């Protein structure tokens, strides 16, 4: 399913039953985007999802937008702002953001989208009975990690050395790295990993991967928010790259 569909569905999911039953004249929704921006196409699809459900921004719903611009360190502060602003519901676009929101605003309903492993990340008890104050969408892509590495090997059969770009601050990434290391020997691949927490570490990460012949980027809001810089570095290094983007941004064409 396309990224924009997740955001559109998140708009519809904002119709939390407990909120709808209150039937107030104007709803107040907080949206915290870690990897996306309020001006993005994905945010427009979110607005469309609300509109299709009968909620018009500025009329019967007020949306409080916050964007961390790929900076995890800003998430607690922004969630606290939303909580203090009186929003009745918070929509999140990331695993880390949802985890922080659960701790910071435990009484506010949370709708999550673009979360990879909701159960494994501790966001819900189970897909059948989530429990708590969180609902939304699970991308359920945990099995795709090894498949992507296999595809990278298939398109470049001579490949023997792959670098993994991941974020140590993401609760799911360490598991992804271990899964990739487990499958690498069966593909005759040697892996080098580079942990990146902030965009200013991109260049150092590329310098550290040595003679790697390809790059595997573990999907993360930071990498998405700064994808132009990241993919430009990969292009300059002539590294075939597996990542979550369907195409390069305009800036790197």
Mean pLDDT: 80
Ranges with pLDDT <50 over ≥5 residues?
14-22, 247-253
Name given to the CATH homologous superfamily of the largest domain = Response regulator
Major β-sheet strand ordering: 2-1-3-4-5
If you consult CATH, what is the topology of the largest domain? Answer: Rossmann fold
- Give the helix tally: 10
Q: State Rg.
A: 19 Å
Global shape: elongated
Tally of structural domains: 2
Task: Please describe what this structure looks like.
By secondary structure, the chain is an alpha/beta fold. The protein has two domains: 3-138, Response regulator (Rossmann fold, 3-Layer(aba) Sandwich), CATH 3.40.50; 144-252, 3-Layer(aba) Sandwich (Rossmann fold), CATH 3.40.50.2300. The chain is built from ten helices and nine strands. The strands form two sheets. A five-stranded parallel sheet has the order 2-1-3-4-5, with helices on both faces. A four-stranded parallel sheet has the order 7-6-8-9, with helices on both faces. Helix 1 packs parallel to helix 3 (41-52) and helix 4 (75-84) crosses helix 5. It starts with a helix and ends in an 11-residue tail after the last strand. Mean pLDDT is 80; it is low at 14-22 and 247-253.
In short:
With 253 residues, this protein is an alpha/beta fold. The chain is built from 10 helices and 9 strands.
What's the structural blueprint in terms of helices and strands?
Layout (H helix, E strand, L loop, with lengths): L2 H11 L3 H4 L6 E7 L7 H12 L8 E7 L7 H10 L4 E4 L2 H10 L5 E6 L18 E5 L5 H12 L5 E6 L6 H11 L6 E6 L6 H7 L5 E4 L3 H5 L1 H10 L4 E2 L11
Parallel strand pairs: 1-2, 1-3, 3-4, 4-5, 6-7, 6-8, 8-9
Helix pairs in contact: 1-3, 4-5
């Amino acid at each position: 399913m396309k990224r924009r569909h997740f955001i559109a569905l998140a708009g519809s999911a904002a119709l939390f039953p407990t909120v709808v039953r209150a039937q107030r004249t104007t709803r107040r929704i907080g949206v915290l985007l870690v990897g996306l921006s309020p001006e993005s196409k994905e945010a427009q699809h979110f607005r469309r999802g609300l509109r299709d459900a009968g909620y018009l921004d500025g009329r019967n719903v007020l949306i409080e937008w916050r964007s961390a611009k790929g900076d995890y360190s800003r998430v607690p502060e922004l969630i606290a702002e939303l909580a203090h602003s009186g929003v009745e519901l918070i929509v999140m676009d990331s695993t880390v953001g949802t985890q922080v929101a659960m701790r910071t605003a435990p009484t506010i309903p949370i709708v999550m989208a673009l979360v990879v492993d909701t159960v494994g990340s501790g966001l819900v008890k189970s897909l059948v009975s989530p429990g708590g104050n969180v609902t939304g969408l699970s991308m359920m892509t945990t099995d795709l990690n090894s498949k992507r590495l296999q595809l990278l090997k298939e398109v470049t059969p001579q490949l023997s050395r792959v670098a993994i770009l991941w974020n140590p601050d993401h609760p799911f990434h360490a598991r992804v790295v271990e899964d990739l290391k487990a499958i690498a020997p069966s593909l005759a691949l040697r892996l080098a990993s580079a942990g990146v927490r902030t965009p200013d570490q991109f260049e150092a990460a590329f310098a550290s991967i040595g003679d790697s012949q390809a790059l595997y980027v573990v999907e993360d809001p930071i990498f998405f928010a700064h994808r132009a810089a990241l993919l430009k570095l990969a292009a300059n290094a002539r590294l075939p790259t597996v990542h979550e983007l369907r195409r390069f941004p305009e800036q790197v064409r």
